[in-house]
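Pilot study result, target chain (410 residues):
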Amino acid sequence: MAHFTYKGRDARGQLVEGVLESADSTAVATQLFSNGITPVEIGEAAAPRTGSGIGQIVLGKPKVLATDLLLFSRQMYSLLKAGVPILRALGGLQESSTNPAFKQALQGVRESLESGRELSVALQRQGRTFSPFYVSMVQVGETTGRLEEVFLNLFHHIEFQEEMRQQVKSALRYPIFVIVAMAAAVAVINYFVIPAFAKVYEGFGAKLPVITQYLIAFSNFWVHYWWLPPGAVIGCWLAFRSYTGAPAGRMQWDRIKLRIPIAGKIVLKATLARFARSLALALRSGVTAVQSLSLVAQVVENTYVAQRIEKMREGVERGESVLRTAIHAGIFTPVALQMVLVGEESGSLDDMMDEVADMYTREVQYDLKTLGSQIEPILIVMLGILVLILALGVFLPIWDLGRAAFQKGS
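Predicted structure:
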């Protein structure tokens, strides 16, 4: 199909222009009339470039942020609730957007709508801008006629995810700062302090303690092969990325993450909170339990948990209850399972899933607030061991030399 540029007037007489994909100019005019636009000028246009050409600059290209999707969902809810047509709503949001990447994505959505496609299909054509879960929920809204309600639920869903990410970043800021400071201190000591003491010890010609010999050897290694440790770190990181990039490696790493001391339980609770919130959203939007579980498996951001959810979906398809499949999944606490039982028996599973999400969210918030106090003893012990090793390695020779000199003088 060819692409055509057009100019026209809408119902209020305002000038509207854009690009449409259609068979011929007559079909373009028909589409414009059906959308309430009177065509003034229609001409052929080159197909839009989707690849990356030689002259294109890709460095520093802006990305679509979660904030953009958050505002978009909220504004779409308000506009649709006020009775504003989708095309006009998208046009206004495109003009008000400050992110060029998101503005371009909205332009693509408008063009797809003007070509006769549904909103969910138009969102799906924008690649990674809109997640499969987001697209699926919009499709559910179109089917059930509750599109504005779905956008409001998506707004709360994205807001919840961003709050969780910000809380995790805030909790990890102090431990990361301490670890970086310790690494910097070790580097300075190995590059400057220990070599200076090594020259002093060498002048005495005395036999050094074993721990001092190890420290000097380690310092010499850092001084002469300083590029090797950073290279090893980078190599290990690339190998890790390659391993987790494969499905089997990703599954194994996501399972290991849930077993990491202190952090593992926080990751699991945050993942289950996201699962419960998403399931409540899907069920409240009119999606069946089987379809809801299939959708939710796409947004938990943990392939191991997603596999457990898929097992739950298969069990529900076979006619088992959600409670039974949740028990077999082996990732829920007894309290959460009890709430699922109540939800199924009372016919309000979506409300109970919201309660489960709130429960896990409160637990995660508490764990994140106390994360610093849980990690602090470990960091203090590590710092104490480091100081002890350095003190023994540096000052034991001085003590031995001083004692030998005192005995010789007496």
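One observation from the pilot: The first strand starts at residue 2 and ends at 9. A full batch analysis is planned for the follow-on phase.
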